[in-house]
Write a structure and sequence with these properties.
Elements lengths: L14 E12 L2 E9 L8 E2 L2 E3 L6 H13 L7 E6 L10 E9 L14 E8 L10 H15 L13 E2 L1 H12 L5 H10 L3 E10 L2 E9 L17
Parallel strand pairs: 1-6
Antiparallel strand pairs: 1-2, 1-4, 2-3, 2-7, 5-6, 8-10, 9-10
Length: 234
């Protein structure tokens, strides 16, 4: 019998949801976007932006829609993270959640809670999160682990920066995500060897230090460095 001929009537009904882990860096601190729930279950608790997938909607479209509806943030490139399906993860019943994550520069975002959906939306330090609804702390932890691993073979961290940035700002983003200091000379040597940075004829002043040269990313999207034959272990 072909798969198309199989009836679904004998199977239990499951709901499919999406959750979005949105990372940013504010004041040299890695933060994640949370919303305060207005409805049961976990009414009044903080949670990741997300919700149920509509019957005529793809999971990708649902993730973007929920993020827009709850926080007013749109036009974000989301990467699928993992599917969370513990049987007791939602007290309302059997709910599978497809999680997504992304890195954004918070200064480019117009964050505004949609009051008819959630009561508030804020950036929280990853290391000092409040109690979260459902299994959302588990989702955040998994997203952070994935993010740290991807630093070694992609340019994902560039999404946190302004269009033009200094090498010090770039190194700072890596250090905040990894939670450790990196050797300045070694970091700069590796980054400049990648061939993905373009030096600008502009400089940025910082206190009494000599103005630092600004750079820009030569690619318009995240690059997998191994495709260029490059691995950057930190």
């Amino acid at each position: 019998m072909s798969p198309a001929a199989v009836s679904l009537n004998g199977f239990a009904r499951h709901a499919v949801a999406v959750d979005v882990v949105l990372f940013t860096i504010q004041d040299d601190v890695l933060k994640v976007l949370l919303v305060r729930r207005q409805r049961a279950p976990f009414r009044g608790a903080w949670a990741l932006p997300g919700g149920f997938v509509g019957p005529e909607e793809s999971v990708d479209a649902a993730a973007l829609r929920e993020l827009q509806e709850e926080t007013s943030i749109g036009n974000v490139y989301l990467e699928q993270l993992y599917t969370f399906g513990d049987t007791e993860r939602d007290p309302r019943g059997r709910v599978l959640s497809v999680a997504y994550y992304a890195l954004v520069n918070w200064q480019r975002m117009q964050l505004r809670a949609r009051r008819e959906v959630v009561s508030d939306a804020e950036w929280f330090p990853v290391r000092r999160l409040p109690g979260l609804a459902f299994d959302h702390r588990k989702i955040v932890d998994y997203a952070l682990e994935r993010l740290r691993n991807k630093l070694n073979y992609t340019t994902i961290a560039f999404q946190l920066l302004q269009e033009e940035f200094t090498l010090t700002e770039l190194q700072g983003a890596y250090e905040v995500i990894l939670g450790q200091r990196l050797d300045k000379r070694n970091f700069r040597r590796k980054m400049l060897q990648l061939g993905i940075l373009r030096a600008m004829n502009r400089f940025k002043a910082s206190g009494r230090q000599r103005p630092a040269r600004l750079y820009t990313f030569t690619e318009t999207k995240v690059v997998k460095l191994q495709e260029k034959g490059i691995i950057v272990p930190f």
